[in-house]
Amino acid sequence: MIDIRELNKRADEMRLNIAARGVVADEEEVIAEFLKAEFYQPEFDAYRETFSTLVYRPDLSNQRDNAVRRGLLFRRRGRRQDRHWCRAGSG
User: Fold this and answer.
1) Euclidean distance between CA atoms 66 and 22, whole angstroms
2) Which of 14, 22, 53, 81 has its CA 20 to 30 A from that of 47?
């Protein structure tokens, strides 16, 4: 049996450890990468042709594009209020 509270505690500890190393990621970059990885999902069928370039070649300096990407991703994953993004790496 899996203890969800223990998993959440471990996830929080990992986030703190990563953040302490100074590798906090930009939210727009994280959203762009998540969306890029999930854009093949059926939920995006109606949007794929229109937004393919925006997803696969993101311009993170364009605030309108960032808002569209955020909306597309939240359409699949829902809105989260407790975001704290960290960059994971090897080493």
Assistant:
1) 24
2) 81
